[in-house]
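Case study B.
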Amino acid sequence: MTLEKKQQEVIEEFQMFDDWMDKYNYLIELSKDISEMPPEQKTEDNLIEGCQSKVWLHAELDNGALKFSADSDAIITKGIIALLIEVLSGRSPKEIKDADLYFIDQIGLKENLSPTRSNGLVAMINKIKAYAMAYEAKQNQ
Amino acid sequence: MTQEKDYDIDKIRKDFPILHQKVHDKPLVYLDNAATTQKPRQVIDKVNEIYSIKNSNIHRGVHFLSNQLTEEYETSREVVQHFINARHKHEIVFTNGTTHSINTIAFSYGEKYVNEGDEVIISEMEHHANIVPWQMLCERKNAKLKVIPVNDKGELILDTYKQLLSEKTKIVAITHVSNTLGTINDLKTVIKLAHEKNIPVLIDGAQSIQHEKVDVQALDCDFYVFSGHKVYGPNGTGVLYGKEKWLEDIPPYQTGGEMIQNVSFEKTTFNELPFKFEAGTPNYVGAIGTAEALKYMENIGFNAILDHERNLLNYATEKLTSIDGFKIYGESKDKISVISFLLNNIHHYDTGMVLDKLGIAVRTGHHCTEPLIKHFNIDGTVRASFAIYNKKEEVDALYDGLLKVKQMFG
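Model:
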């Protein structure tokens, strides 16, 4: 599925929710679906700064596609990172690096979930993009 | 619990315009008062009045507006003086907040009295604002920071404090009330023990001034500091009280503006108290607004405030602890109206996010007291803090909200 189509799908999914509790319940469900992060990947390096909760994010290149794994000690935050991974995992470093993630605004996550340093949504995206840039540079070596 | 007879909660709530709104379609329940308090109409009107018809820089002008506002600023100093029962008006310095006040003393007192090998005593329950300025001072002077530990109820261990006090100790800086736990410290004992060794004591009053009557002469503290915005006054204002002998004795902190007597390129002499510590154009609007807030509190009366908040704390403690898995942090027998808690093993941030969407404002995290939070082996708590305008129905809303949280994260 193209990134464009995937974002549309998520936007449509969120349009079905009447209120924030429904959105949160959906994120809670997503947090349960994400595969468990191996403990050895929960390193200081993989920890994202700027969140009230702890968020770890790890990326590996597999056949030209980035595969992410993540965890958080807060459930809603884990749901958010799970959603980001669902949209981006399996795509090329270049596509992720250049991605315009407009779906975040459209589903209301940005305005409601990231007052300054609270949930660190911006920090999560920066970390994902940093991985993408690093792996792209490696590919071009 | 019935609302106290003499306490007209509805009338008080009417004075606070911000309370009467919906957030996320729910009536706002504001329980983040330890972070900042809301402002009564009287304070908002005063600030509005100054900018509308009275604004002018103070102290310097020959003209009508300047003189008029200078007088009001100086009258505000008297209001603060009487509010905390300081001996002299010039012992009241207006600052831009508690943090500024503490930094002033850490620098000015530290410059004169703290030297290599000396010690400064603080406690494990301090806000970062009463840790870092002293830490920086100790680094500059090669001195040592000593820390009074807390027990698991969140009370200072005074036996250890006694052992820490020595001829090396140059100052003790302690909070009156813990912003995270609500603990009210036994200041009389803390100050008496220090004074027996001629050590001055600074009290961080940021979390006490809005809850109980403070009398700096009865306490006999050497410095007492607080913020205007936590006592229903405007943001960006604060007070530094210091005994005359100390404020006379120590050098100024920041320089420039009204604090100067004469300047030449060879030598500058400094103005008398309190102006020596008020560099630059003071936040006179904030200071006058803060005085208005103090008058507002005095009108309600401290006994009434104390009773109301104590009733609210007791009601909330009883009701919330009836929730299975509700754990309170801070169980001192002497507490102000703050409840710091966790619900089962649900992350404080998850709890706060859901409460927010129910219209309930709480604070989550370490509350700028990382060492204290570490003491309890946790990453943070949810903190509900109550003020003069909170009512028991809001405790009920929090209770219902927490049941919802439990159901979602179960």
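The longest strand of chain B covers residues 169-175. The remaining cases will be described in the next quarterly update.
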